[in-house]
Structure formats: structure tokens, C-alpha cells
Design brief:
Helices cover 34% and strands 16% of the residues. It is α/β, with parallel strands linked by helices and 357 residues long. Strands 2-10-9-8-5-3-4 form a seven-stranded mixed β-sheet. The protein has a three-stranded antiparallel β-sheet with strand order 11-12-14, with helices on one face. The radius of gyration is 21 Å and the shape is globular. The two termini are 25 Å apart.
Length: 357
């Protein structure tokens, strides 16, 4: 089957096969990774290799910490302000979808959340023009959601924010194409879309931004304390961490983010070109901001939705139901979705039009 779910999402087949082969006996250790102590040298070597490969694949500069946390991106909606306010009282938020809106709301618990720009009036189908953003030069950071998973809206590049640290929720576009990590103060992402199973969250943060948490912040949420303990202040999600490590190795074998990014661009183009070439289906997002990871679309006749989904499932194309807040369909085409999967989806869509259109 081809799994178009928004997350937890499909993983690369070679990774799953390796997990299967090593499940009961990792590298002759006589035990599987799930059964290993996180303090043993076997697991420490797995954790270190994962970080090394992540740094290599993303090109993380030496003055950034890479942290492996729990609580999902949702916990980071709070943990980011707890760490990054650093004596300041406000932060700027660019809200381009429901996830950014949630992050914005959480910020309000810790200080003044400034809604510097939002596309809510356009039903989150675009990104407000950079010239219209009302940024505050005294803000502690500017928060964006690089890719809004529900609405299928993606920033093509890191926006310029006048020297204030840029924070990005990259949950659904992490490691999907090359980026310049140095343009960000902090990047966070739940792993369960492009890099592994759910249960582990990756934070990449510039050294000079950590170590000044708000009073009352738990030690487990203090980036500096976590970094000093190699993300093992408490028992980490060992199995998820291990699988992420295999995914980063797979990314290297695939030719790194340049090759992966090109493939993702081809996959997205195949689907959007078809969506734009007929009027039975429609994607509402402004073209420069269309997501290469999550492609929402609606049928002109919503009464056919249930039939479309039933038929797609029977054809081995699963997870296509759109998010409940926007309806219609959504095809999530993360790194592990092969080009053949997108081609199979387009073929199915054409056949559906031929019989029902
Ligand atoms: N941010 C984005 C962009 C997401 O897509 C999601 C989940 O889909 C989240 C945050 C929430 O992530 P988690 O479930 O890991 O807390």
C-alpha cells in the first residue's frame, strides 16, 4: 500500500527492514534496542551516531546544540518561550495555520504574544506579504511554522527578521530539502513525519540562546540542562531515537537533502500539475506557498468524498481523508513516499473522474 497519512507517517522501506532484522539481536549484542539500558555503551553509540548523522545531513553548525526530547512539538509551544524569552517580555508570531495559532496561544502564558501577521482571514491559504508584518525590534524571537500540515502552506525560504532570533516549527517539513540552519535561532520538530516514529522531538538551538529559563521551568524543559546531560537527564525514548538514526543513515545513502529535496519537488509538481489541469479537484493555496509535504484538495462535488475514499483504500492508497477542520482530502507526501506512490494517486484520481465525473 501507499500510506498518505499526515503522521505518524510512512517510513522508508529499507529502514523498516533493518529494524526487523535487528529487532531481537542488535549487532550481535544478544538483545534488541528496546531492551537496552540507555546508559550502556551499545545505546550510547546509537545515540551519538544519530546526532552525528543528523548534523551531517542538515549541515548543523558547531555552535548549535541538537537535543532529543519528549512531549512532541506541542510541548515545545511552551518550552520555547520558557527558554527563549531571556528577560524580554514579548515574542512575535506569524500565524499561517492552526499549528501556528496553537503555538501563539501557548506563548500568551509566559509573556505578550504579538500577532505580527496572520492569514486567518484568507482561511490560511497564503502567507502574508513580508512587508505587512508588524515586527517588534524588542521581541525575544519571531516564531513561524515552516510548513502548516493541515492547510498545506509552506514558507519557501527562511524570512528575514531584522536580527531577532527566528524560531521555526518544522515538524512537517524537517529534513525535506536543504536549509541553512544558521538562519534560525531554533528549529523544532516532532519526528513522526519525516524522521522516525512518534515519541521523540528534535530541537536544534543556537548556543548563546540557552541557559536563561523563566523561573519555575522544570529541569527537563531547560535546554541547557538537557544539553549538559546529552538528552539523557531521564530515560529517553530509546527505540524511537534508534529508528531516527537509521532514517538519517538512509538520507545519506539517498544522496542527502539535495537529492531528497529534488525528489520531493518532483512528487509535489506531479500532483499540483494535475490538480491545476482540471476542475474536478481543487487545491486552494496560493501557488508560491504550496506545501511540498501536505497537499490538501477538495472535490467539486463533496457528496462524492466517501466514495473517493472507499475506492482509494481499495486501490491501496490510504490515509487520504482531509483534516476534520478543512474537510476534503489531503495527500501527505513526506520523504519516504516514493514517486510511484504519487503517480498511483494521480492515476486513481484520473480514473475516478472518468467514472464519476
Ligand atoms: N506542529 C505541526 C506543524 C504539526 O504538524 C504537528 C502535528 O501534526 C504539531 C505541531 C504537533 O505535534 P505533536 O503531535 O508532536 O505534539
Amino acid at each position: 500500500i501507499f500510506n498518505f497519512s499526515a503522521g505518524p507517517a510512512t517510513l522508508p522501506l529499507p529502514v523498516l527492514e533493518q529494524v526487523q532484522a535487528e529487532l531481537l539481536d542488535w549487532h550481535g549484542s544478544g538483545m534488541g534496542v528496546m531492551e537496552m539500558s540507555h546508559r550502556d555503551k551499545e545505546f550510547t553509540s546509537i545515540a551519538q551516531a544519530c546526532e552525528r548523522d543528523l548534523r551531517e545531513v542538515l549541515g548543523v553548525p558547531a555552535n548549535y546544540k541538537v537535543l532529543f526530547l519528549q512531549g512532541g512539538a506541542t510541548a515545545q509551544f511552551s518550552v520555547v518561550p520558557q527558554n527563549l524569552l531571556r528577560g524580554k517580555t514579548s515574542a512575535d508570531y506569524i500565524v499561517t495555520g492552526d499549528w501556528g495559532k496553537k503555538a501563539f496561544k501557548e506563548m500568551g502564558r509566559y509573556g505578550r504574544a504579538n500577532l505580527a501577521a496572520t492569514s486567518e482571514a484568507e482561511k490560511f491559504t497564503t502567507i502574508p506579504d513580508r512587508a505587512s508584518w508588524k515586527l517588534d525590534p524588542d521581541a525575544a524571537f519571531v516564531h513561524i511554522t515552516s510548513n502548516e500540515t493541515i492547510h498545506g502552506v509552506e514558507f519557501p525560504d527562511a524570512p528575514e527578521v531584522c536580527g531577532v532570533p527566528l524560531v521555526s516549527d518544522m515538524s512537517s517539513s524537517f529534513a525535506s530539502r536543504p536549509i541553512d540552519v544558521g538562519q534560525y535561532g531554533l528549529i523544532y520538530a516532532g519526528a513522526q513525519k519525516n524522521v522516525g516514529p512518534s515519541g521523540i522531538t528534535i530541537v536544534i538551538v543556537r548556543d548563546d540562546l540557552i541557559g536563561q529559563v523563566l523561573p519555575g521551568t522544570f529541569a527537563i524543559h531547560d535546554y541547557k540542562v538537557v544539553a549538559e546531560n546529552d538528552s539523557m537527564l531521564n530515560t529517553p525514548p530509546t527505540f524511537a531515537w534508534y529508528v531516527c538514526g537509521l532514517v538519517f543513515q538512509w538520507m545519506k545513502n539517498e544522496g542527502g537533502l539535495a537529492a531528497i529535496g529534488e525528489r520531493n519537488a518532483r512528487k509535489a509538481a506531479l500532483l499540483y500539475d494535475y490538480l491545476d489541469a482540471q476542475d474536478f479537484y481543487r487545491n486552494p493555496v496560493a501557488k508560491p506557498y504550496r506545501s511540498k509535504m501536505n497537499v490538501p484538495f477538495v472535490l467539486a462535488n463533496a457528496e462524492l468524498d466517501a466514495e473517493f475514499l472507499k475506492g482509494s483504500k481499495a486501490a491501496g492508497l490510504i490515509g487520504l481523508k482531509g483534516h476534520r477542520s478543512v474537510g476534503g482530502m489531503r495527500a501527505s507526501i513526506y520523504n519516504a513516499m516514493p514517486e510511484a506512490g504519487v503517480a498511483a494517486l494521480v492515476d486513481y484520481m484520473k480514473e475516478f473522474v472518468r467514472t464519476k465525473g
